[in-house]
């Protein structure tokens, strides 16, 4: 590195070269910081209180239905190896569960964030590129071909392990009559996932199923991807909302995913107090890896689901700031002014 | 390196011979049986490193020799080969970026070198071939060619001067581009060469190329028909060096003897010394720590992974089965690849871009030194020069300053003050008012009122007029001023119509002194010197021999013949070298004057003469001629001859020349001492002169107790030298070291507050004794005693030093305990060795040529500039780079820590927390610019205050902000923030339904929230540390944050066709649509910065205090120490890490 001399030339006399650029030299003096802390602290306490109260108003009802405990209604589904096991979970609400009610299923000790699991999907298949139906990408292994060497669509571990318990919710009226609560399966996945990121292949000869010719369904699935919702074509194939929700991997091994919303009919305003029965079609095995399944009913606020952490954090930090400002005030009163006398 | 290339270029066989034979004009000579044209290399200069073809491989090879680059290459290869969590792009791209930037820089530099080479190599020259002039490109010149050079052209290769257009067979040359000396030097043709070059048949025998510019030995055999071949000696005065420029001479012819890479200029071309700064050592230390952290993280994760997998159902749950290949893989191999994968995942903790940022910071930062107009000296029209930018921060770490005296502390601008003739003092009072210029002044000598005899006076003045190598500037040349290395010397004085040119300013001062007393030197014409005496008569002397000055003999002589046929030898030199060679009774009369003058700080020279009888002269003449012709050991033979001739002289007088102190020398020295630096003066001058200079510079003060260890003190008393030495060393050690109050741990550098100041004086002879005592066993004892004494003295003066001894001292201090940072400053060739030896070498663009400047790391025009260079530039550079380094490690630690923590939540599966784009861009784009701007522009204390308060320099002494404690602080901060980022978001994600429509966030949202907090926190942390906000800082800091937001939108807003997975599609936008995400980002940023803000505020009172300190009541250490103890306990927390606020 050599800066060959400026020679006989006089150096430029600009503010930049002389390191004399006009500069703002902020001094975080006590006069700014103490009131600043106080204001921030108070603001945070305000936000914290707001958050905390909001979080308290959110109603949550959750229930583990894995069937580990002996008295659990679903315990027989865990013993029984038979398919199509159903079990009923009954519960009662003492007050109105304000709507719209969100219906989540939750899994724990389930690692959707495994690295190999996470990459095990073929994005091109999922955008409807039929070229990749014949030869899925290698990352899908070992869920790429079935034992007869037929390509799997959608390939990969994520799709293969799609959550397939289904639920029906009934309100028990007068102790006996079961009135089904309509569950809304729309709008549970990200708008962009449904509308842009995932695409179905276009139908061949007017049949959607023909587009998938020559492929097989994922090993664990009871039916092919084009049969996910035979009723509503907009919810079928890769655009099936349950599928989309599942494909968005969870961040932590204990997670919940949105299953349905209760927005319609008599229940648009919420679930009225009373007894309910939840029928679970128990298909999804979790006990082999010591996992748990649960259902959660919750309503949401502007901050999302119930989460006390934020409110408490704001309260703590806010009070910390206030305390700090007081401490600083004392420190300054004691030392700074005496320091000034020295000078 | 250069040698190797040389060997390749020129073929090895030639090397075996000691000398080479060149046939002038390629004409065979009679007595050589067979004319074998020997092969010499061509005249091409190659200073470039690369060619178009080998640039890529060679440059890549050199870059990957750097350990950091190699490490990243390995990581990259691991990513390519092994199935790893992140794509090779994530580490490949930054590496590519770093390599490309460096390659571009080096390529550009090499292109400049190519351009320069071509300019030289393609330059048209005229070569005489068979009597015709042929135009050729310079690179085509072969050894033996006769080359024509016209005025103001540079010589295309090293030539032996054969013919000059000037009558007297001389030519003038400036070697400005070689050694920076712009004075005209005279070179001589080989005597007795034919006027007709075509008829000249001659062979030149000369030594093989060697780099010393001032040495050349050769012999020329001239063959004439019908005659015995004549032999002429060739010396440096016959050799015209490539790169020098012909002046004042219309045209010359010369024969090429060395060409291309064998020219002395090419041999002197060498890469700058590889000095490494202490900061770099710190970086390497930190790097090692982080490497350990990295490896232990990888080991922990690998171990935990296998522990975790051993649990039933964890290893291979049904939803995530392994492929057959994975099942078949050997368990240990799997462990190993897992380990590698973790390494790759966490490798971002080693900041790849730090090296390139540090390099850029140094390179760009050094421009501020060259740009500084305070360093601009109107007299020489030059500013500071930066030869290496690797050492900028070292300027802020200097503990020992070794300074030369002449030309550095003093101006080297000589003025004749007085002389003493035969024991009578003559003081020059005011030339203009006195008619004959002679005045007698008061002095300690009682015979003062009388003048010495007229004869003695005139002899003395003639001696001054004759004994020198001064040239008179050509009449008719435009400027009639003194020229010493191109600098206008003294003030014009009306009666001084002549300009003189000399290699040493002393000589001009003496010739001018003589002129004032009526004897004017008129010049040298065809070997006879003309002087005009007081009676305005012209006297002529035939110049027979010049016995050149050299620093070992410390004297020079001339032998002249008067018009009456008398042969006289005049000799002038240092007292110590003259006194033993004259009659002792004469010495006493003059010694007193010499010593008195020396104590007043004047440079003294003694003048002696002797008359040579014809026989004596004949012996001397043959001896000198023989010695000059010798091919081997010419130097030694000449030296012996000189010593033989210069004996038995009689002393006629002494001169005193004043060398004025440099501007602000005292203030500068005071500032340096106030900044806690120990100043050592190393000079070749005599003790008295040097001591007085030290007093004048306030290095020694009235209260300073001087500890003297010189030949004089050693010879006091009866005991033997060695015993006395030990005794004195013991004494002084007791005084300065043992009795001194014990140094307190906290205030190590406030030694100047000790009650008693000590100054230490040692001379060259004694130093030799200390360094190489008669018994080897004592060596270490002597040294350690000596060193300890010196370290406890405020100032040390080493006089009568040979250049090598100066380097020895620097080396000794450099290698002493604690390896302090040393700085050498000097202006002359004799300072080069110490400039090269010290950590930082500073050259002064003085009057003794450019050698010091060429070998220095930084060059400044004046001593006074040293203050700003160290106190302001050095301080700022150090703080900047230290902060840069610490910040880089910190920001990568809190970058990667969440990723590490995430492994505990994803089954140790090496799942990256952040998207690949973020991993790649974090160091390159999002966080690199603010710190670069900071590290170029930050002025935590303004330059004025730094200059006024020298004591501030001590706050960064001993690598203060790059030691382990501040490093630990930054590391802890990084860990704290990393933990906060991860677990803060972790708590939020205990319920991932964060949107008001009940939808849930996935893992990439998690990573993006953490990353957003991270980018904002580290940038705002830097903002918090920035004390000096220029518009650039604003632009870069806010710009970086805006860029991050913009990039995230952009990256997530488009389906990128080249990506296999659209992982981040709309993640960022969705995140921003969630109020909870906003709230958690805000609180985490605030919480991470909270401790930092608290520290800033609690440290504030002290900062205010030092800011309020009035300029002027500066530097002294006592208020500093009292202040530090008076600070309240609370505010002292982390004060040692103070890097952001003072």
What does this molecule look like?
The complex is a heterodimer of chains A (about 350) and B (about 1150). Chain A is α+β, with helices and mostly antiparallel strands and about 350 residues long. Helices cover about 30% and strands about 20% of the residues of chain A. Chain A has 9 helices and 10 strands. In chain A, the strands form 3 sheets. Chain A has a 4-stranded antiparallel beta sheet with strand order 1-10-4-7. In chain A, strand 5 (about 165-175) and strand 6 form a beta hairpin. In chain A, helix 1 runs antiparallel to helix 9. The two termini of chain A are about 45 Å apart. The relative contact order of chain A is 0.23. With about 1150 residues, chain B is an alpha+beta fold. A 9-stranded mixed beta sheet of chain B has the order 14-35-34-33-15-29-32-31-30, sandwiched between helices. In chain B, strands 17-16-28-27-26-25-24-23-22 form a 9-stranded antiparallel beta sheet, with helices on both faces. In chain B, strands 3-2-4-13-5-11 form a 6-stranded antiparallel beta sheet, with no helix packed on it. In chain B, helix 7 (about 280-310) packs across helix 9 and helix 7 (about 280-310) runs parallel beside helix 27 (about 865-905). The longest helix of chain B is centred in the last third of the chain and has 39 residues, at about 865-905. Chain B starts with a helix and ends in a 16-residue tail after the last helix. The relative contact order of chain B is 0.08. The interface between A and B is large, with 104 and 107 residues.
């Amino acid at each position: 590195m050599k800066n060959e001399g400026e020679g006989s030339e006089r150096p430029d006399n600009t503010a930049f070269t002389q390191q004399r650029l006009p500069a703002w030299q902020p001094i975080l003096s006590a006069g700014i910081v103490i009131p600043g802390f106080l204001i921030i602290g108070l603001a945070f306490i305000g936000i914290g209180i707001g958050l905390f109260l909001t979080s308290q108003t959110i109603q949550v009802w959750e229930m583990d239905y894995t069937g580990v405990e002996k008295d659990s209604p679903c315990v027989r589904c865990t013993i029984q190896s038979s398919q199509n096991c159903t079990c009923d979970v009954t519960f009662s609400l003492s007050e109105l569960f304000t709507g719209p009610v969100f219906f989540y299923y939750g899994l724990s000790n389930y690692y959707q964030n495994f690295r190999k699991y996470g990459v095990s999907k073929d994005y091109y298949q999922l955008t409807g590129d039929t070229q990749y139906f014949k030869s899925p990408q290698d990352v899908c292994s070992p869920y790429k071909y079935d034992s007869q060497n037929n390509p799997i669509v959608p390939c990969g571990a994520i799709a293969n392990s799609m959550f397939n318990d289904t639920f029906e919710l009934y309100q028990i009226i007068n102790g006996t009559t079961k009135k089904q609560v309509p569950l809304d399966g729309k709008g549970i996945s990200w708008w962009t996932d449904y509308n842009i990121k995932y695409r179905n292949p276009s139908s061949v000869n007017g049949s959607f199923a023909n587009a998938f010719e020559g492929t097989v369904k994922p090993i664990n699935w009871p039916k092919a991807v084009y049969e996910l919702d035979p009723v509503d074509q907009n919810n079928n194939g890769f655009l099936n909302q349950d599928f989309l929700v599942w494909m968005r991997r969870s961040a932590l091994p204990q997670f919940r995913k949105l299953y349905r919303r209760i927005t319609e009919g008599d229940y648009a305003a919420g679930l009225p107090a009373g007894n309910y029965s939840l029928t679970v079609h128990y298909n999804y095995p979790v006990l082999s890896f010591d996992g748990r399944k649960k259902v959660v009913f919750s309503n949401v606020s502007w901050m999302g689901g119930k989460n006390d952490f934020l409110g408490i954090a704001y309260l703590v930090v806010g009070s910390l700031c206030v305390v700090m400002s007081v401490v600083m005030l004392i420190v300054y009163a004691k030392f700074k002014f005496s320091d000034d006398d020295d000078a | 390196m250069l040698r190797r290339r040389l060997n390749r270029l020129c073929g090895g066989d030639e090397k075996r011979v000691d000398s080479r034979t060149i046939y002038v004009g390629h004409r065979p000579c009679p007595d050589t049986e067979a004319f074998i044209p020997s092969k010499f290399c061509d005249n091409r200069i190659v200073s470039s490193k690369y060619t178009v073809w080998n640039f890529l491989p060679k440059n890549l090879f050199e870059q990957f020799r750097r350990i950091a680059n190699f490490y990243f290459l390995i990581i990259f290869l691991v990513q390519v080969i092994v199935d790893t969590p992140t794509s090779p792009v994530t580490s490949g791209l930054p590496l590519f970026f770093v390599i490309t930037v460096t390659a571009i820089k080096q390529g550009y530099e090499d292109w400049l070198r190519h351009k320069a080479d071509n300019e030289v190599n393609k330059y048209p020259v005229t070569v005489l071939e068979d009597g015709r002039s042929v135009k050729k490109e310079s690179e085509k010149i072969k050894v033996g060619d006769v080359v024509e050079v016209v005025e103001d052209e540079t010589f295309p290769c090293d030539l032996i001067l054969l013919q000059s257009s000037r009558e007297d067979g001389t030519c003038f040359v400036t070697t400005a581009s070689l050694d920076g000396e712009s004075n005209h030097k005279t070179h001589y043709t080989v005597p007795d060469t034919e006027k007709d070059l075509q008829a000249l048949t001659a062979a030149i025998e000369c030594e093989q190329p060697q780099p010393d510019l001032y040495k050349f030995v050769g012999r020329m055999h001239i063959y004439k028909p019908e005659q015995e071949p004549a032999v002429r000696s060739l010396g440096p005065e016959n050799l015209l060096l490539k790169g020098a420029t012909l002046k004042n001479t219309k045209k010359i012819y010369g024969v090429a003897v060395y060409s291309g890479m064998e020219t002395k200029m090419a041999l002197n071309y060498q890469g700058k010394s590889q000095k490494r700064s202490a900061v770099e050592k710190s970086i390497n230390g930190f790097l090692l720590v982080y490497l350990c952290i990295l490896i232990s993280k990888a080991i922990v994760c690998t171990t935990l992974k296998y522990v975790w997998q051993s649990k039933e159902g964890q290893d291979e749950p049904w939803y995530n089965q392994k492929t057959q290949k994975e099942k078949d893989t050997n368990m240990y191999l799997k462990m190993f690849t897992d380990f590698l994968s973790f390494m790759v995942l966490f490798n971002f903790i080693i900041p790849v871009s730090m090296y390139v940022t540090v390099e850029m910071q140094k390179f760009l930062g050094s421009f501020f030194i060259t740009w500084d107009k305070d360093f601009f000296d109107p007299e020489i029209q030059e500013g500071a020069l930066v030869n290496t930018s690797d050492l900028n921060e070292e300027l802020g770490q200097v503990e020992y300053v070794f300074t030369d005296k002449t030309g550095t502390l003093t101006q080297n601008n000589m003025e004749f003050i007085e002389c003493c003739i035969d024991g009578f003092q003559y003081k020059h009072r005011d030339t203009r008012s006195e008619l004959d210029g002679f005045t007698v002044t008061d002095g300690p000598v009682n015979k003062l009122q009388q003048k010495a005899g007229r004869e003695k006076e005139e002899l003395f003045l003639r001696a001054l007029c004759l004994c020198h190598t001064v040239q008179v500037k050509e009449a008719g040349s435009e400027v009639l001023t003194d020229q010493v290395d191109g600098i206008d010397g003294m003030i014009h004085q009306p009666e001084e119509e002549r300009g003189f040119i000399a290699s040493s300013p002393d000589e001009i001062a003496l010739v001018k002194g003589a002129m004032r007393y009526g004897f004017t030197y008129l010049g040298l014409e065809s070997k006879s010197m003309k002087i005009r005496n007081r009676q305005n008569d012209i006297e002529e002397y035939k110049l027979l021999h010049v016995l050149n000055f050299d620093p070992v003999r410390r004297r020079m002589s001339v032998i002249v013949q008067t018009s009456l046929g008398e042969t006289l030898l005049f000799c002038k030199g240092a007292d110590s070298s003259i006194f033993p060679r004259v009659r002792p009774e004469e010495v006493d009369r003059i010694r007193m004057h010499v010593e008195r003058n020396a104590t007043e700080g004047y440079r003294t020279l003694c003048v002696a003469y002797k008359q040579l009888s014809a026989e004596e002269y004949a012996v001397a003449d043959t001896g000198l001629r023989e010695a000059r012709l010798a091919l081997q050991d010419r130097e030694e033979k000449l030296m012996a001859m000189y010593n033989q001739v210069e004996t038995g002289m009689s002393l006629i007088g002494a001169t005193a020349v004043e060398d004025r102190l440099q501007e602000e020398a005292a203030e500068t020295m005071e500032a340096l001492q106030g900044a806690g630096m120990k100043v050592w003066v190393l000079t070749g001058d005599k003790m008295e002169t040097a001591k007085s200079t030290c007093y004048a510079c306030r290095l020694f003060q009235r209260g300073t107790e001087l500890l003297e260890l010189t030949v004089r003190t050693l010879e006091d008393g009866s005991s033997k030298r060695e015993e006395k030495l030990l005794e004195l060393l013991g004494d002084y050690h007791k005084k300065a070291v043992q009795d001194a109050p014990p140094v307190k741990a906290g205030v190590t550098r406030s030694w100047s507050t000790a009650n008693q100041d000590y100054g230490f004086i040692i001379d060259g002879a004694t130093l030799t004794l200390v360094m190489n005592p008669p018994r080897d066993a004592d060596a270490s004892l002597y040294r350690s005693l000596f060193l300890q004494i010196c370290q406890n003295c405020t100032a040390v003066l080493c006089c009568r030093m040979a250049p090598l001894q100066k380097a020895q001292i620097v080396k000794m201090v450099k290698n002493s305990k604690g390896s302090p940072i040393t700085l050498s400053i000097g202006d002359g060739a004799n300072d080069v060795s110490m400039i090269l030896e010290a950590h930082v070498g500073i050259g002064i663009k003085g009057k003794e040529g450019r050698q010091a400047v060429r070998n220095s790391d930084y060059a400044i025009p004046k001593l006074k500039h040293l203050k700003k260079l160290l106190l302001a530039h050095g301080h700022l550079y150090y703080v900047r780079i230290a902060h840069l380094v610490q910040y880089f490690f910190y920001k990568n630690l809190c970058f990667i820590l969440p990723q590490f923590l995430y492994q505990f939540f994803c089954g140790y599966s090496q799942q990256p927390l952040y998207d690949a784009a973020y991993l790649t861009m974090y160091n390159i784009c999002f966080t690199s610019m603010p710190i670069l701007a900071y590290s170029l522009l930050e002025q935590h204390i303004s330059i004025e205050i730094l200059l006024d308060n020298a004591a501030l320099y001590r706050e960064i002494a001993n690598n203060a902000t790059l030691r382990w404690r501040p490093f630990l602080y930054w590391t802890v901060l990084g860990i704290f923030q990393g933990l906060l980022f991860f677990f803060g978001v972790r708590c939020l994600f205990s319920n991932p339904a964060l949107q008001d429509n009940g939808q849930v966030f996935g893992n990439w949202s998690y990573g993006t929230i953490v990353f957003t907090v991270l980018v904002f926190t580290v940038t705002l942390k830097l903002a918090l540390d920035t004390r000096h906000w220029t518009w650039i800082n604003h632009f870069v800091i806010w710009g970086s944050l805006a860029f991050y937001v913009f990039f995230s939108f952009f990256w997530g807003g488009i389906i990128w066709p080249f990506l296999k997975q659209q992982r981040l599609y709309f993640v960022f936008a969705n995140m921003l649509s969630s109020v909870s995400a906003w709230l958690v980002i805000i609180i985490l940023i605030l919480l991470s910065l909270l401790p930092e803000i608290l520290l800033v505020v609690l440290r504030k009172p002290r900062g205010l205090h030092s800011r309020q300190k009035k300029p002027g009541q500066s530097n002294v250490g006592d208020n500093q120490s009292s202040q530090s103890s008076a600070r309240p306990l609370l505010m002292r927390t982390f004060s040692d890490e103070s890097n952001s606020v003072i």
